[in-house]
Amino acid sequence: MERLENDLQKLQTTASQVEDLMSKLGVQEIELHQRNEDTEAQITKIGQQTEKLSQEQATVDDEEQKVLIPMTEGLDPVSMLTDDTTIAKWNNEGLPSDTMSTQNATILTNCECWPLLIDPQLQGLKWIKSRYGSDLKVIQFSQKGCRIIRVQAWIYH
């Protein structure tokens, strides 16, 4: 009999603990539901603000496109930095006659430091090597063990 009473006591204790847990879970459910509603409200608010900012940015972009920057018609930086005689001399030295090669040569001959040249087909590389000879150090980013040291020209392809 005593054993049954002990078992009954244990069951009542367990039932009481279950009720406490269910009560706590109910409170947590309410809190989580409230947090969920708050989070949804914040997401909605942020979405509205984002849309408003996007519209404002689009308006600003449209206004910036309307602003015209004064610019001299027919301005050509290559013709300001070099002349036809020099370009012809470069072509006779082996520089290809395309526009990009002429622009690269202009940059190379007018820069004070180390130029970064765009030469995807390596057309100007031969001309640069022949022009500057053994004083030239060329680094290509594809070169194995490439380290950036003091160089006189970079050829990027």
Please give a quick description of this structure:
Residues 89-145 form the Dynein heavy chain ATP-binding dynein motor region domain. Residues 1-66 form a coiled coil. Helices cover 64% and strands 6% of the residues.
Question: Could you list some keywords that capture this structure?
Answer:
2 domains, three-stranded parallel sheet, mainly alpha, dynein light intermediate chain binding, 157 residues, Rossmann fold
Describe this protein's structure.
Residues 89-145 form the Dynein heavy chain ATP-binding dynein motor region domain. This protein has 157 residues and is mainly alpha-helical. It has two domains: 1-70; 77-156, P-loop containing nucleotide triphosphate hydrolases (Rossmann fold), CATH 3.40.50.300. The chain is 64% helix and 6% strand. The protein has helices at residues 2-66, 77-81, 84-92, 99-110, 123-132, and strands at residues 116-118, 138-139, 153-156. The protein has a three-stranded parallel β-sheet with strand order 1-3-2, covered by helices on one side. The longest helix is centred in the N-terminal third of the chain and has 65 residues, at 2-66. The chain is elongated.
